[in-house]
Specification:
Blueprint lengths: L8 E3 L2 E3 L3 E3 L8 H10 L3 E8 L1 H4 L5 E8 L5 E6 L3 H13 L4 E6 L4 H4 L11 H14 L4 E8 L6 H12 L1 E10 L10 H10 L4 E4 L5 H11 L3 E4 L7 H8 L8 H19 L1 H16 L6 H9 L3 H11 L3 H11 L5 E9 L5
The structure holds flavin mononucleotide.
Length: about 350
C-alpha cells in the first residue's frame, strides 16, 4: 500500500504535513515560490541553494540574500560548498535564522559549482562528503538532510554507496534525483535506484525527478517506498500541479486565477529582490504561467517586451477581467509577513 499523499511524516522531530516537497531550484525557489507551494499543498519547502563561499570570499555573483519567513515552515535551507568548516558555519547561520532543516547539496551538476569541489562532485569524494555532513550535523541541533544525484557518470551507482555513509555521518533524510550529473535533465529519472536506496537506509528518503501528476506521485511512492516525492519543474509557474498532486484540485485554473497568482508572485518577488532584479528574474515566469494553453503564445512575447512591471500588470488585468477580485481575496488571506534576512548569498548559478 502506498502512503497517502495528504498524510504527515517526520524528519526526526520535524513534522511535515504532506508527502509533497517543493524542490529547491536555483533561480526559481524564491520566497514567493515557496509560500505559494505551501498554500497549494507542499508539506515542506526548500530554499534554492545558497553559497557558503559568500562567507569566506564575498565575491560570489549573487541574486541577493536569502529571506525566510515563519509562515514558510517547515522550511529547509540548502547550502553548498566543499569545506566542512565553512559549511558548518553556514549551517549555524541557517539555524539562527529560524529554518527547520539544513539541506546539503551534493547534486548540483553545473560546472561553476562542481569545479570548486562542491555539488555533485562530492558523490565521487565520499570521505569529504561525510566530513561535510559530520561537521554540519555537529554544529547545529537541526536535522541535516542531503540531496544527491545518482553520481557523475551515466549509470553511476555512487549514491547507493555514499548514501548509507552519509546517514552514518548524521544525515536525517536523503533526497535522490536519480539522474547523473552528466545527464543534467535529459532522459528520465531512474526511480528503481531510489527504491534500492530506500532499502539501504533507515531514514526517510525523498524521491525527486519527473513527478508531474498525482498519478505519477502515487506510482513513485508505491514503487520506491519513499516517504515523499519532490516536485520541481512541474510546479514552475504552475502551483496548480501541487494542488492536483495533493488531491485538492482538478483541471486547469481559470484565466483570472492564473493572472491573480502571477501578479501576487510578481509583487512578492519585487519585495524580495527589488524592482530591478525582479524585472529580469520574472521574465521566464510569464511563459511558465501563461503557457500550457492558458493564453495565446504572442501574449507572453508581448509581456516580455514591456519595459516595466506596472505595464505588465496592466496588460495582465486587461486580459483577464475579474483577476483583480481574485487577487484581492488572495492578498486578504495572506498571513502577516515576519521575515528574517539570512546573510548568505543566493547564487546566480543554476542547477541541481
Ligand atoms: C532551474 C533548476 C534549478 C535547480 N536548482 C537546484 C538547487 O539549487 N539545488 C538542488 O538540490 N537541486 C536543484 N535543482 C534540481 C531539482 O531540485 C530537482 O531535483 C530536479 O529538477 C528533478 O525534479 P523535477 O523533474 O521535478 O524537476 C534544480 C532544477 C532546476 C530545473
Amino acid at each position: 500500500m502506498a502512503v497517502q499523499i495528504e498524510s504527515s511524516w517526520r524528519i526526526r522531530d520535524i513534522e511535515i504535513p504532506t508527502r509533497i516537497v517543493l524542490a529547491p531550484m536555483a533561480g526559481v525557489s524564491v520566497q514567493a515560490f515557496r509560500r505559494q507551494g505551501r498554500r497549494f499543498g507542499a508539506g515542506l519547502v526548500c530554499s534554492e541553494m545558497v553559497s557558503c563561499a559568500g562567507l569566506s570570499h564575498g565575491n560570489e555573483r549573487t541574486l541577493g540574500y536569502l529571506r525566510i519567513g515563519r509562515d514558510e515552515r517547515p522550511l529547509a535551507v540548502q547550502i553548498f560548498g566543499a569545506e566542512p568548516g565553512v559549511m558548518a558555519e553556514a549551517a549555524r547561520m541557517v539555524e539562527d535564522a529560524g529554518a527547520d532543516l539544513v539541506d546539503v547539496n551534493f547534486g548540483c551538476p553545473v560546472r561553476k559549482v562542481t569545479k570548486t569541489g562542491a555539488g555533485a562532485t562530492l558523490l565521487e569524494d565520499p570521505d569529504r562528503a561525510c566530513r561535510i555532513v559530520e561537521a554540519v550535523a555537529e554544529s547545529v541541533d537541526l536535522p541535516v538532510t542531503v540531496k544527491m544525484r545518482r553520481g557523475l557518470a551515466d549509470g553511476s551507482r555512487a549514491a547507493l554507496e555514499v548514501g548509507p555513509r552519509l546517514v552514518e555521518a548524521g544525515a536525517a533524510s536523503l533526497t535522490l534525483h536519480p539522474r547523473s550529473a552528466k545527464q543534467m535533465y535529459t532522459g528520465t529519472a531512474d526511480h528503481a535506484l531510489t527504491a534500492e536506496l530506500v532499502e539501504l537506509v533507515d531514514v526517510p528518503v525523498v524521491a525527486s525527478g519527473d513527478v508531474v501528476s498525482r498519478e505519477r506521485a502515487g506510482e513513485v511512492l508505491q514503487e520506491t517506498g519513499a516517504a515523499a516525492v519532490m516536485v520541481g519543474r512541474a510546479a514552475q509557474g504552475n502551483p496548480w500541479a501541487i494542488g492536483e498532486i495533493a488531491g485538492r484540485l482538478d483541471g486547469q485554473p481559470a484565466r483570472e486565477e492564473v493572472v491573480a497568482e502571477l501578479v501576487l508572485f510578481m509583487r512578492a518577488t519585487v519585495d524580495e529582490l527589488g524592482e530591478q532584479r525582479a524585472t529580469g528574474f520574472l521574465k521566464k515566469f510569464y511563459g511558465w504561467y501563461l503557457g500550457r494553453g492558458r493564453f495565446p503564445k504572442p501574449f507572453k512575447q508581448e509581456l516580455v517586451r514591456l519595459e516595466g512591471l506596472a505595464d505588465v500588470e496592466e496588460r495582465l488585468f486587461a486580459a483577464a477581467p475579474g483577476a483583480g477580485d481574485v487577487l484581492a481575496r488572495l492578498e486578504g488571506d495572506l498571513p502577516e509577513e515576519d521575515d528574517v534576512l539570512l546573510d548568505l548569498p543566493i547564487s546566480a548559478y543554476g542547477g541541481g
